[in-house]
Each structure stands twice: as structure tokens, then as C-alpha cells.
């Protein structure tokens, strides 16, 4: 089932998500719905808070970028209760966007290499290192479960320039071709 993606302005997007247990109610169904929702919105990653669940889960599929990015070996994974162990290398900028913040993109500075410990969908523990675009997608989605949005990394001037667009998104004044849920204060 395609779930609505919660738009900028929703408090769940700014909240640190809670750890989940293996017996989390309907977890397999949620994961399946998240994949369907992400693909429907043409995304490469999606986190629990983006579908209104303040839990530490995110999914990512960078395999779909392999045609665009030379030398990329993508992955398709579920990350539960993830913890970034380290971020290494020389900072680099790359343009990011977000399904919860449609029509806004911006250069975000991140480290090119990340080591992450997480549980897979079967609650088996993994510790893995990723680099390049794979690391960036993980860092972006990880930020979601920590209540952080990519717009927080933008320089002050850029933040001022997009403030009106962000306000419009929060009010539901945006056109997207996927289901969204807007916060009514």
C-alpha cells in the first residue's frame, strides 16, 4: 500500500526516532509499504518519520543509480536501529533533495565515507562501510531518524532564499505526483 509522505512542517520530521524491537507490530508490512511508497515517488531512500512513524528505520536503493553513476555498485537494503560509527574523508558538496521537501534542492557538505552498524529486516546485525553516493544516501536517511533535514545544512543565505518555498510546502501549496500529508496546525 502506498503511504502518504509527510511534508516539511510535520513535527515527526524534527523528532529523534525511537529504537524498535523485533516484535514491532506489522513491521514486515510497513517495510513492504515503504518500498512501494518510495518507488511510487521515484525516490532512492525513505525513512520512518517520512511516513509518520517516529521509529529508527530507513530503506535505500542505490542500484537504480548505477546507469547514471559510472563505477557505482549500488545496494538495496533496510536499515533498522542504525548507528553511524564513523564518517571519514575530505568534505565534499553534492546536491540533495528530499521527498518530504519537494521542488527544493541544495548543496550539502558531507564526508565521503561512512561506517554504519544496523540491523537488517531479519534483525541480523551488520557493520559496513560505504563511500561516495552510497554513503551520502545513508547519511541523508540517517539524518531523518535523528530528526534532521538536509535544509539545515544549507548556508544562511540559501535558507533565507528558500524560506517562502518551505512555508508553502508546510501549508500544502505544492504540486507533486505522489501522496503527501500536510501538517494542519
Could you give a quick summary of the protein structure above?
The chain has helices at 27-40, 132-145, 156-170; strands spanning 5-6, 45-47, 57-61, 76-88, 92-98, 101-110, 113-119, 125-131, 180-181. The protein has 185 residues and is of the alpha+beta class. Strand 5 and strand 6 form a beta hairpin.
Description:
This protein is α+β, with helices and mostly antiparallel strands and 185 residues long. It has one domain: Peptide Deformylase. The chain has 3 helices and 9 strands. The protein has helices at 27-40, 132-145, 156-170, and strands at 5-6, 45-47, 57-61, 76-88, 92-98, 101-110, 113-119, 125-131, 180-181. It has a 5-stranded antiparallel beta sheet with strand order 2-3-4-7-8, with helices on both faces. A hairpin with a 2-residue loop joins strand 5 and strand 6. The longest helix is centred in the last third of the chain and has 15 residues, at 156-170. It is globular and about 40 Å long. The two termini are 27 Å apart.
List the helices and strands and how they pair.
Blueprint: E1 5-6, H1 27-40, E2 45-47, E3 57-61, E4 76-88, E5 92-98, E6 101-110, E7 113-119, E8 125-131, H2 132-145, H3 156-170, E9 180-181
Parallel strand pairs: 1-9
Antiparallel strand pairs: 2-3, 3-4, 4-7, 5-6, 7-8
Per DSSP, what share of the residues sits in E-state strands of 2 or more residues? 25-35%
Report the span from N to C terminus.
27 Å
Poorly predicted spans: none
Tell me the helix content: 10-25%
CATH classification class: Alpha Beta
CATH architecture grouping: Alpha-Beta Complex
Q: Give the helix/strand class.
A: alpha+beta
Cα Rg: 16 Å
How many strands appear in the DSSP assignment? 9
Please state how the strands of the largest beta sheet are arranged side by side. 2-3-4-7-8
- CATH topology name, in short, is Peptide Deformylase
Count of helical segments?
A: 3
- Overall spatial form: globular
Whole-number average pLDDT? 96
Give me the strand/helix succession: EHEEEEEEEHHE
- Largest sheet features: 5 strands, antiparallel
